[in-house]
Model the fold of this input.
Amino acid sequence: MRRLLDWRPCLLALFCLAQPFAPRALAAQDSETAARQISSDLGDAVIAVRVVIKTRVVVEGRQMNEGEAVDQLRATIIDPSGLAVCSLSEVDPSQSLGMGMEEDPGYKFEAELADLKILQPDGSEIPAEVVLRDRDLDLAFIRPSEPPAEPMPAIDLTNGAKPQVLDRVIVLGRLGEVGNRVPSVALDHVQAVVEKPRTLYITGLNTWMAGLGCPVLSLDGQAVGVLVVRSLPGVSSGAGQPRGDSMPVVLPAEDILHAAQQVPAQ
Done:
């Protein structure tokens, strides 16, 4: 007599194999839903800023080169008054471009911020100014030259999130002119946490692509920090060429908030 195949063990095995994948798929959907909502709520807190920088090179007391560069960068509004933070490396490139040249007293590089404007999505411009520089943290604080008529959307830096390695984070950005300066959003992971000499978060390519000055948040909307540049001091090699190392890092929200307390009242 033929014995009937009992299909119940097979079904149970398939059910058990499927279980580990369901929570991951659900978690991914939750992350994407959270990212879309946070982008909708806080996307306008990331602004485009146009800077005009005049540069000059002086060699042995003679001016050898003079130019003007126009660039667009990103900044994060951290107060409804319009106070925003961005990377000092983009506002004032003199420190990075002149790195190591201090050993040659006959060479001098100068960079001067000639103009700064906040670019609105509708194409209008708001004159702005740098109100505080922090070279150690690579921070530049900017705000409108005149107080805005209405409070501006801002990201709250208080009670900042402290993610661990491999935690998912949300990166808010804003496209350039070719993308009509619309808000952008991406999901990323914390790849490493540097604890000394100060805490820094290292994230992935999605954060870097958003650009310096863009904010990183936890899945529940708390601020992790803002993307800036962390550099080692230039060290002259035997050939006299400057050497150094730099990388984009997420500076914690609490460090930015502490620095912002030094901004003069408007």
